[in-house]
Structures are given as C-alpha cells and as structure tokens.
Amino acid sequence: MKMLVLADIHGEELVLEKFLERKKKAGKEYEIVLIAGDTTNNSTSFMVELMEIFPSAYIIPGNNESQNVVEVMQKAKNYAHEKRFELKDGYNICGFGFSNPTPFHTPGEMKDDEIYSRLSKMNIDEKTILLVHAPPSGHLDFVRGAHVGSVAIAKIIEEKRPLMVFCGHLHEVIGIEKFGKTTVVNVPAAEYGRYCTVEMNEHGFSVQFKDI
User: Fold this and answer.
1) Residue 164 region, left (φ>0) first, then alpha (ψ -120 to 50), else beta?
2) Runs of H (alpha helix) within the chain
C-alpha cells in the first residue's frame, strides 16, 4: 500500500501543477492520499481544484480554513473529520481536523477539552492511521522554546495507541518520532515544496520525506 501525505499547502498553485503533471505522466501513483489541513488561504476555487486532482483523498481542515472553505471541503468523497474509513488488511483511517488554540486566533481553533471529548468517541485502535492537523503535545511540537501541540491528541494517543499519526501545522518542525507504540510523523509543509510518502506491507512501513 503506497500513500502520499500532504500538509500545509496554503494555496500554493505550484504544488497542484506539479502533481497534476505527474498524474498525467504516470497515472495513479498512490493508492491512498492524505491531506492534513491548511490546504488553502481561504480560496474555495483552490479547494475545488485540489479535489479534482485528488478526488479520493482523505482530507481534514486545519486551523486556517474559513467556514466557506470547510463547506466546500465537506463535499469531498472522503472528507475525514470525525470519520473512520476501513482499508484493506484490517487497517483504517480516522481523521480529526482543526487545532488547539494558537496566538493567532485563526478560524479553525478548538479548546483541548473539546478536541478530547470528540476524539475519544471515535473508534481508534491499534490498526488506525490517525490523520490530524495539530501534533500531539510533547512530540514534534517544540517552537520558540515551548511545546505548542495538542494535549488532547497526546492523551488520545496514550489511551488508544494508533499505529501511525500524521500531522502538520508547525512549519518549523518536521520529523518522525515514536510515542509509545505509535509512530508520529510531522509532515513538511507542501507550501515549501516538500511532502511525505509511506510504503506499507505485511512486514511494516517506511516513511520518506521528499521534494516536490
């Protein structure tokens, strides 16, 4: 199973142009596409264009998407916020968008108490690929001398132990880190020309960061 993971595109047209060009040349490269929020800078037309290029992508909103953009995103085939999708070999994808509060008071912020209340109701298990926007507190979230990730997401990972967690949100931090039995991946910002791929098979999985 081959996956493409994008985060924080922020309306960068070059990203869509590059992937559209590759799609025309190579056809369908990836079985699964995950998009971890902050896709646009409040452009509904960009969101429509993205959904046309990746019609089956599992997509969640970030903290920067305004309500009108989210309403367009909700029409996507695999809009994943607060939803679970079954995959082959017993794996599943669960999604939860938005972020814990930031100093910037962006449209898609949510208190950690609410994030935890809503996430805890989801059927997340040890074969879950969890797609979130904000990183878990204490893991790949250290910016300007402080951990700024979501305490709620960290608590959910401790309790439910998903297989993998993909997040974005913090352009300054990328990487792969173990959190108990869970592998957390903070995906590089596509706005800056980078993305992530994952290869999964019966022996496990490998993650790579690549340049667009």
Assistant:
1) beta
2) 13-26, 44-53, 67-73, 112-119, 151-160
| Spatial separation of the C-alpha atoms in residues 91 and 19, rounded to whole Å | 26
Tens digit of each residue's pLDDT, the chain (212 residues): 899 999 999 999 999 999 999 888 877 789 999 999 999 988 999 999 999 999 999 999 999 999 999 999 999 999 999 999 999 889 999 999 999 999 999 999 999 999 999 999 999 999 999 999 999 999 999 998 999 999 999 999 999 999 999 999 999 899 999 999 999 999 999 999 999 999 998 888 899 999 98
Q: How far apart are CA 7 and CA 166, in angstroms?
A: 9
Check: CB of residue 43 under 8 Å from CB of residue 69: yes
Q: How far is CA 61 from the centre of its chain?
A: 9
| Nearest one of 180, 155, 154, 158 to 167, comparing CA atoms | 154
CA 211 – CA 44 distance, rounded (Å)? 26
